[in-house]
Amino acid sequence: MSVPDWQVALARERTPRGAVAQRTLMQTAFQRSLGPGVDGDFALLQFRTAFDKRSDAGETVTLEREADGAWRVIGYFIK
User: Fold this and answer.
1) Beta strand extents in the chain (DSSP E only)
2) Per residue in 45-67, pLDDT tens?
3) Is the alpha carbon torsion for 53, 55, 56, 57 positive or negative?
4) What is the pLDDT of residues 36-46, one digit of tens each?
């Protein structure tokens, strides 16, 4: 996904909820696979988040350690 497409998708999900009022990291899990054929070094960060317009939400940020050793965000989900 291109950066402009990512920005549009993120705004579409986040804007209706309002600004983040509070965010608490609940769990970090490290995994070697995200499913069949999706292998690598992954970290899943789960947050409990309160937005201005929704007080109890969950956010998951998925990171992948790339060949240069840097962790980069590859997914973001709100529940």
Assistant:
1) 20-33, 39-51, 54-65, 71-78
2) 999 999 999 999 999 999 999 99
3) positive
4) 999 999 999 99
